[in-house]
Batch of 2 targets.
Target 1
Amino acid sequence: MLLKASLMIVIGALIGWITNYFAIKMLFRPLKEINILGFRVQGLIPKRKMEMAESIADTIQEELISMKDITANIGDIELGEEIDLIVDRIVEDKLEKQVLAKIPMASLFITDSMILKIKGHIKDAIDENKDEFFTVLIQKMEDSVDMKNIIIEKIENFELDELEKMVYRIANNELKHIEVIGAILGAVIGGIQFAISLYI
């Protein structure tokens, strides 16, 4: 009787562990659809990759971050130093290097102080109109950039082998726990079956 009880508990534990082990594996495997005795079998994630990509994209866009969330912070970005550097570079490249190099006589009229004034006027003009610029930029981004399609494309292009490795790397302990829980539940069920068999 003890041997029978032990066997039923061990077999139940094995069945529970093996069932959960294959259930976890079948999240990804087989990657490509195969035919087994007329049944088409494919891993859940490879089979529903497109649906999952759309669902993830919708969740990210609606619950986590959208293009409006991104553009809402653009106007707060301070670009003073960067604008100064860009204006300096443009004036130096276009005016000092190209115009003065081609027309040396122009250096008699375009002095260093005049170049500084030109830079200053350009910087002031940019600074005075940056709000309008950011408004146009933000509107254009919101109209043109489709966050959902970007996310879907990224997920679709993600190699399933790499995704599988990443999931196992991140959730390896949790997946092992699921296997162990399956073994424990199987053992409990085996014990219950043995107890029931005593009264049948």
Note: The CA atoms of residues 158 and 193 lie 46 Å apart.
Target 2
Amino acid sequence: MMKTLSLVFTFLLLSCNGQESKIQLQNNKEMNSLKIAPYNITDEGDGTKSNYDDLSLEFINKAKKILEQRKFQFLDENTFNQKILDVFSFNVKEYKNSIIALRPAMFPEVAIRDNKFIFIQDAGANEPEFINPDLLYHFNSYVFYNTPVSYVWLQTNNSNLLYDLVVYYGYNKDKKLVESIFKKFDFNSLSDMEELIFMNSGSHKVLKRQIFDDIETIIYKGKAEDFSYAKEGNGYLRIGEIINKVSSSPKEYSDPEKTISYLFERELRVGIQGDAESYINKNPKYKSDLEKNNFYELPTLKDYVKYIYQKENNSIFIIQDSDGYTNLRKDKNSSSQILQKINTGEQIDVLDQSGDWWLVVSKEGKKGYVHKSRIKSE
């Protein structure tokens, strides 16, 4: 009986050891498949390089102790990883390093994965390792908990870090922060605008699409109702030049044609038509390419090309009604308020040809709807 139990125990032990070996092998395989952090090695500019994989454990422990003394609540691993992704657009789970610099810089923000905090240095600090206790605490407190007191402290003492969160990293969940940055942002600077809307991901520049909703809401106060006028604002002053750069150097950008089309979409949403019109005029094939790609699911661009852009058919539209006039109405129905009577033979501008009721502008400048049966093209 004892011999049988011994054999069973041995079998179970071998099975468990075998299972553990398989798990360890799988873990090693998964670890080897992960990437190396891209910004850990930085060039100091004098021929020497620093490697954040070798960041002093003494520095890390000192920073952790500072946070502990200030009652900072360290997050669990999943929440920490998600916060890094939300704020810095950086997925630390893709990398094997336990210490990860989040951007190339002299003093970058550094994710300490084992201890779940951001190590940040201050060149102006008195400490030899450039640790500023206030900065360390308030930056972590704002990034992970959006603490109002820490936000105010950073605005007063290190506003450049908040600026970088929005402009460099594309963080936009704190609308109060985004609005404050936009108030002092130079939308007329081509280089600043490129940094705001593009994220460098290795060999390509990728659009930070989330930031465009903020430009539209904060700068232009919302989307234009139609194509009859452009909203006031300076948010897209340099978009035309950026589109030309993407067109002339497509290999530098991720999905260049889709990127160009998205930029047109955002301009057109606030009524800016000049760049799209000019581009289609210079690139006749572009219109058919858009149609083949179903306009990349961009509804405003689709409406503009189908109903507004008319280079191929420069028609003149006039009113043709047997009654001698037709009614310009406020809405798309025959019982809607009459804004004006337009005489037969009078020329109008057509803004939108979708549906049975077309959006038009009379020679007096009044905008409204006329049934398409009352409009003739010449």
Note: DSSP finds 14 helices and 14 strands in the chain.
